[in-house]
Design goal:
There is one protein chain. The protein has 124 residues and is mainly beta. It has strands at residues 3-7, 10-13, 18-25, 33-39, 46-54, 57-62, 70-75, 80-85, 94-101, 113-114, 118-123. Strands 2, 4, 5, 6, 9, 10 and 11 form a 7-stranded mixed β-sheet that branches. It has a 4-stranded antiparallel β-sheet with strand order 1-3-8-7, with no helix packed on it.
Amino acid sequence: QVQLVESGGGSVQAGGSLRLSCATSGLFFSSYCMAWFRQTPGKEREWVSTIEVSPIGSTATSADSVNGRFTISADSAKNTLYLAMSSLTPEDTAMYYCAADRWSCNSVSYVKYWGQGTQVTVSS
């Protein structure tokens, strides 16, 4: 059974940094794509970043809104996914969700497994 548990959220001032973690169980990174999404009240859940891990390396993609500021990474030995966030702005305030799927991680419609979320609040 796949389980995803996020941590690392909190409150930070604009310009600051945070690192989110997602502890996983029941899956191998090489068999799943892993991703981060975020959602604010009243809005649809938004894709943030995806990583696909293979024996020869990993491939990461990110939304334009976070490209250059957020970095997704995965530690297979620790079964943990990360999202390092820097230069945070109030627009980054959201609940952040860890996600996994065997086939596609770039759309809410396709992702099968979700964590419970961790709140990030950025004040100006």
